[in-house]
């Protein structure tokens, strides 16, 4: 006679079945990090009971505290809880692979047909809709992360203005935002090593001088991944400064199209890096970019998960991360202005963007559907 599981006890599912769930989620999961995290809670905690609620909440908190795209970090953490390093590795690959393959297919089509009028028309409308989607996401993130904290709002404003003014993300301002919030709200009597370890993760512009293009791509996107806090959209302003203005890998329009491709596909938003890598160096470039953005995430989870409970309640770490998150949110808001200059330049694009924002605020319409409608509108209006 088998003993029934208690309400708080997780059911041990076969690892193959557990990994298969993340393969499915990576294939059909739209809506950004918050929606994907919600799916994991509903499916794995509430319905199937494969993960205990406490483990899920700890993973969600880790994903919010540590650098890296939230949904991917949460998935890898849950894989670690299920089967250690093997589980984390298998889940990470299963979650990212479907959207990576979709982006490869879209990138190949973009390169082949990008010069044709119908493709121009589609992305004429899609680019304007993407600005609306990012603007709405920035608004939601602002409400979620800042609350009524005046200091966080000040950090947000500094990064929003600096990003909009310079069209690039200034890394030292990110770190300064974290340090300022730490010093004002949780000044430590003794400097703890966990706080310092976050600074060791921060990249500087003097990191490796790579000779090969693929190595340049790998290192650049690894640096970018360290500054993705909470939402994958946080990487957009960082990428714009390096990809368009620094390395000149993409034009302004191609960069907006790269963000659009990420919105069209399911899974993590930061998969947009695969599109950028493909434009620069084909399949090898896409692979290098994806490894660069996700391998640090994977390493961060494996590094922090075993001792997570010891440092998660550290006031200094939480204060630093809140400051950096406020800075990231401000950079996203500034990036809306930067990207809008390139994508909204006539009456039709203004209308498409405005309608997209209004619809998203009024109804819970899936973002891919918004983009599909914008593509049709772009085709019709671009001809006129």
Short précis:
The chain is mainly α and 384 residues long. It contains 16 helices and 2 strands. It has a domain at 132-342.
How would you explain this protein's 3D organization?
The protein is mainly alpha-helical. The protein has a domain at 132-342. Helix content is 77%, strand content 1%. It contains 16 helices and two strands. It has helices at 15-28, 32-47, 53-65, 70-113, 117-146, 150-166, 171-185, 193-200, 213-225, 235-246, 252-264, 272-304, 308-311, 315-343, 347-362, 367-383, and strands at residues 68-69, 229-230. Strands 1-2 form a two-stranded parallel ribbon. Residues 191-211 have low confidence and may be disordered.
Largest sheet, described in full?
A: 2 strands, parallel
Strand content: under 5%
Compressed to H and E, one letter per element, the order equals HHHEHHHHHHEHHHHHHH
- Average residue pLDDT: 80
Work out the number of β strands. 2
How is the largest sheet built, in terms of strand order?
1-2
Overall geometry comes to globular
Instruction: Indicate the percent of residues in helices.
Output: over 70%
Secondary-structure-based class equals: mainly alpha
* Radius of gyration from the alpha-carbon trace, in angstroms: 21 Å
Q: What is the first-to-last residue Cα distance?
A: 73 Å
The number of distinct helices, counting runs of at least 4 residues, comes to 16
| Unreliable sequence segments | 191-211
